[in-house]
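WARN no homologs supplied; continuing
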Amino acid sequence: MKELRADAVAELTAPGADWEVVDEDVLGERMPVFARRARSLRQLLERSARFGDRDYLVLDDWRIGFAEHVTQVASLARALSERYGVGPGDRVAIWAENRPEWAIAFWATVSCGAIAVACNGWWTPDELAYAIDHSKPTVLIADRRRLERLGGADPAVPVIEMESARHELLADTAAALPGVPIAEDSPALILYTSGTTGRPKGALISHRGLVGFVQVNGCNAAIGSAMAKRFGVELPAAERNIVLLTSPMFHVSGLFAGIITAAATGDTLVTRTGRFDAHDVLRLMERERVTQWTPLGAMGPRVLEAMATSTCDVSSVRQLGFGGAPLSPTLRERLRDGFNITGRLGMGYGSSETVSVVSSIGGPEFDQFPTATGRVLPTVELEIRGPDGAPLPDGVEGAIHVRSAYIMLGYWRDADATAKSIKPGRWLDTGDIGHVDDGMLFINSRASDMILRSGENIYPVEIENRLAAHPAVADAAVLGVDHEELGQEVKAVVVPAADADVDTGALAVWVGETLARHKVPSVWEVRTEPLPRNAAGKVLKNELR
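OK structure emitted
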């Protein structure tokens, strides 16, 4: 399988091929890039007009075609420039739930050469105030619900309310997209990190990085098709994907894999407002004939539970993606069975800081290596490094470092944090611990999640996966807690499955059947409420502590 993939990659990226890779200077370093590419997000947007009247954004009965969307973006871009003075390098903050205006505001901002500031829609007024002070935007574009959350307080920046300004600001059909020059490595986005500890940092991301995200994924899809053909399997080709977007638009999954990718590929994005509702998700899948969905965090289990009493036809769903937070092999199998999907499961590894997906796994290898995150993708380089910063051989765990033309430019207004993360040669220290085995990347843990018990490194994910496989457990998180003699001991927080009684003694035996004794939790907490998670679906372990 490894050799077949290598052959497919070599063929697809060769000189003159569709995904030809060449070396170019990027920010002072020689790096591999795709020879044929859009040179800015605005150019990618301009190309999306070729999809014409095909639906790009759908919310209830509001449907926006690709060509109409470009016109609306041009209208808003003119208003931002002429009414609010937005120009290259200025920041425009976007604070809203998933709705078409979010996407339009993003495209209008980057088309002006300005920088979109993706504000977390769950933020409190205090958190928004921090981001406003930190990014210094020229204008804030927000929806009514977010503004009501401020309770009348002045956000200290001009405000455009999406709902009331929509018809006026999007109606200038004579407007053309801005013509200001945009360099590939110009900043396009400030994406705030999850902020599981302390204040979030603002990852500054370039036009090149976001276009690269789309290209790396497109090349990876082409590799999958080429490998399938080598096995005599012709993957069914659909006119387009109908993507149900339940990931937040201020997050990598919603913005990179949703808004930007759909504009490049002609996919339709089906959105919904309000809190996550599993039964409404099933209703939308049936109504819009959704073909693709990426559940984050607890979304998957909640939809599976709703399916038990639902009559909605979800047979159109043929592809599930996973990202944002680790997912246990047990839950992946439950989702595969629940949606009756064969072979169209996939997972990628990346972050706000890597921008592009680093590695990906799908098809037969997903079954063969259920705990892996896949093989490194074209134009991306990876090293596992030891404490001295030197690369380590295969099989030895260490700090995961990534290099590509797409990694973040740095952290906005934080030179110290940038220097800690981006090493010489523009190698990014991801903060993750893992190893490579025969070309396959395995993520052991976030460095900050690792438990050190009596000198032994313990990675929570393997214990969490074991607990998730128990029929009485709906969700689980494992963390280290202080111990006077051992340094740390292992604590497990479990959420029982519906109508299940949890016996922590039995769970300890269950874990001990497959894992070493020192990995068996010695402290247990049974929690009836869902585990606290951030927008990426990652468990907020500091809250559990």
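The first helix runs from residue 2 to 12.
OK
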